[in-house]
Every structure is written in C-alpha cells, then in structure tokens.
Amino acid sequence: MSTSTSDTTTASKAPSNRPAASAPKTASASRATGTSKASASATSTQPASSVRHVQQIAERAILVPVGAGLVVRDNIVSTVKGLATKYTTRVGIERELKRYERRGVTARTRLERQVRRRRNRFERELRQRRRKVERAVAQNRKRVEREVLSVRKDVSKRSDLVTGPLEKLVANAQDLIGSIS
C-alpha cells in the first residue's frame, strides 16, 4: 500500500535502460536505507516481509469499513437529494402519487390475471378428470352388464342341461317308488 523511501531511492538510482528491480545497490543507497552489507547478510528478509504483510492486513482492516461507510453515506445523500427534488413542490408530490397509483393498479391487474388463469386451469383439469371418471364408470358398467348377460345365458343353458336329466331322474325315482308301493 505505502512505499518506503528506500524503494524510491533505489528506483531513482537505477539506470534508465534497466528495470529498477535489477539495479545494483550502491553504497549511498545502502546508507540511505540504514543497512550495510554485513547487517543485511546477518538479518533475514523474512521478518521484514511478514511485517509488511501484517501492516497491509492492518491497513485493509481499517480502510475497508471506512470505504464501506463512505459508500453508504454517498448513497444516503443521493437518495435524500432525489427525494428532496421530487417532493419539494405540490406538483411533484402529486406526480409521484399518481405514479405509485399506476404501479399499484398494474400490480393488482397482474395479480387478478394470474388468479383468473389459475382458476380456469384448475376448473379445466377438474372437468377433464370428471369426464375421465364418468367415461370409465360407463365403460365398466357396460362391461359388467355384458358379462352378467353372458353368465345368465350360460347358467340358463346349463340349467337346461341339468334340468332335463334331473327331471328324468325324478320321474324314474317316482316310477320306482310307485312300483314298490
């Protein structure tokens, strides 16, 4: 975030045809930073970079809320200015009220349309289901009536088959009983 004076000093001493990072440090540059070759080799660069890292984190921790607060303040100021310009005159207030009324009417119309559409769809699906059920009941009734008629015919045919021999058997039994008595 912030640059130290040693970075600017080194950059100003660098030749114009080479980038600043590859420029060799001169004795005057090391004196300006307060380090010598012996002390630079004795101390590690790790603490300096972690200190710089902590410093950047601390700066961010302070600057982010400050910036967010300023953005909020700007938004509030612009909103208040906008409201002040809209509602300073009677004509402005009436215009805004009409605008709100139109928006309310539009929302109500949209809602009524959606309700009507849903009701119509529900009623249509209900009629379709009712027709399907009625059709199925009618088909099942016809099928049952057909089957009952078929079974009745079968029973009557079989009863004729059983009745004839049974009548003969009864007649024979009566003849036998009559001849014994």
Break the fold down into its secondary structure elements and pairings.
Layout: H1 5-13, H2 27-33, H3 37-42, H4 46-86, H5 90-180
Short synopsis of the structure:
This protein is mainly alpha-helical and 181 residues long.
Distance between the amino and carboxyl termini: 138 Å
On the 0 to 100 scale, the average pLDDT is 79
Radius of gyration: 52 Å
Low-confidence stretches: 1-23, 27-33, 35-40
H/E topology pattern: HHHHH
Oligomer type? single chain
Query: Counting H and I runs of at least 4 residues, what is the number of helices?
Result: 5
What is the total tally of β strands? Answer: 0
Strand content: under 5%
User: Helix/strand-derived class?
Assistant: mainly alpha
| Main beta sheet strand tally, sense and closure | none
Helix content: over 70%
Shape: elongated
Q: What does this protein look like?
A:
By secondary structure, the chain is an all-alpha fold. 85% of the residues lie in helices and 0% in strands. The chain has 5 helices and no strands. It is elongated. It starts with a helix and ends with a helix.
Key features?
about 180 residues, elongated
